Amino acid sequence: MDVNGRGTCNSTTPSDEEMDLRRGPWTVEEDVTLMNYIANHGEGRWNSLARCAGLKRTGKSCRLRWLNYLRPDVRRGNITLEEQLLILELHSRWGNRWSKIAQHLPGRTDNEIKNYWRTRVQKHAKQLKCDVNSKQFKDTMRYLWMPRLVERIQAAAASNGPSSGGSTASTTTHLLNSNNPNLPTGHVILPPTGIGSNFGGAQVNHPSYTPENSSTAASSDSYGTHVSPVSDLTDNYSNIPVNYNTNNPDYFQAGQVGYSDSLISPSGYYNPAMDFQSMEMNNQWLDGGADASDNLWNVDDIWFLQQQFTNNNI
DNA sequence: AATATTCTCAACCGCTTGTGG
DNA sequence: ACCACAAGCGGTTGAGAATAT
User: Which residues cross the membrane (predicted)?
Assistant: First the structure.
């Protein structure tokens, strides 16, 4: 096979029938052909690239294969805890803007992040019997899941020691810090002390969003994609005093924007369908039945949620 | 061991946006 | 301003793998 695109490329556009276009999984030969062609000619102009390379594929298919699989800087393997945290955080800002989120996770593709969200995050929402786009679930992510991830990252860092690579406390801090180049500017989340939100009577200052970014988060994008109404959490609450009194003080710092809305706010976000009895029945939540990397909540978390829900539902 | 069910992820599809004539 | 085409994006599907029964 001439991997150099046969020298001169026929510029006519044969029909699909003439091309006898292939579909489905790529073969090793096709991968090699595509990689060699791009190595010699660069990427772009995907339709003509496919034709000139002698690939019986659509340009779209070639582009996707290259971007999601063959590109040398594509990172494969499990999503790390830090990456999970970043995905959750960025999704809370931008919604299903997978490509935009992927830009902040070097080597990860939008497809991979999208798959992660669907298979892991939506699975948890399903297990909780609530909608993944519900405020209830988003708050649960923000005030339980994400802090839990931070804990685990820091625990891993502590056990690995400061000199080890990968997940270190400084890495975590870096990821969460506004100086992190992977994060949008002005981004500050999960400082070490203080919790402000009214999470079950305890007010929690929203950790992640400033008034300026909340306005952008609230807007819908040009695709009409749902964007997390994060600003709903911050709007109108900037003057509410901190009144932290939960037994879970370590996750969010007072400051930034006051935030008093909650899972169980008087506005009625508590959903009785979020049934912790059933959660307990589902031992995945309690005994590690799920993959360890997914099992972000433990008995204490669930007890905490139950207490908060109970106290505020009287 | 056989079968059913669930999970994962690569690939496709349809739509929107960008660009050049 | 309009059209055609390419590129990009997010949603969805389906085959194979993994796990449960």
Answer: none
List, in order of start, the domains of chain A with CATH numbers: 16-70 (1.10.10.60), 81-312 (no CATH)
| Residue A313: CB less than 7 A from any atom in strand C | no
Show the tokens assigned to A151.
């804990």
Which residue has better confidence, A182 or A151? A151
Determine the pLDDT at residue A162.
56
Which bases on strand B have an atom closer than 7 Å to a protein beta carbon?
Answer: 7-14, 16-17
Distance, Å, A190 CA → B18 C1'? 38
**Residue whose tokens read 């003057």:** A239
- pLDDT, tens digit, for every residue of A281-300? 333 333 333 344 444 544 45
What φ, ψ does residue A257 adopt, rounded to 5°? -105, 130
Cα-based torsion angle of the residue sequence A255, A256, A260, A263 in order, rounded to the nearest 10 degrees:
-110
